[in-house]
Specification:
The protein is mainly beta and about 120 residues long. Helix content is about 0%, strand content about 40%. This is S-fimbrial adhesin protein SfaS.
Length: about 120
Amino acid sequence: MDLGQNIMAATLSDAGSATEWKPIAIEIISCPATTSSATMILNGTPDATESAMYSNAGTATGVQIELQNTAGAALGNASTMIQDINAATQSTTFNMQARAYSSKGKATPGTIVGAVQLTFVYQ
């Protein structure tokens, strides 16, 4: 997901500073009629200082990747989300949001890169 183009280092210069949230919607479609819910498990490399966030593998320093559900709960490594499957549409959507974050400030210019693997379990 694209966290934004041309993020200025000044945006992340202060401790606790962040970019705007970017919405993420993961759709599960065409579920069998017997499927009642889906669990999504998130796995990625946690940041060394902010364990509820993901590490930046890019060239910018002092930056973490923050992922939350739309209610504001952190979705760090090994987090789960559960969604009921809509029986009429046989689908559901996992809504989340992501942003670049700097816990200590003084971020340096560069790329922001991260990977989160999603595993789905259907009930």
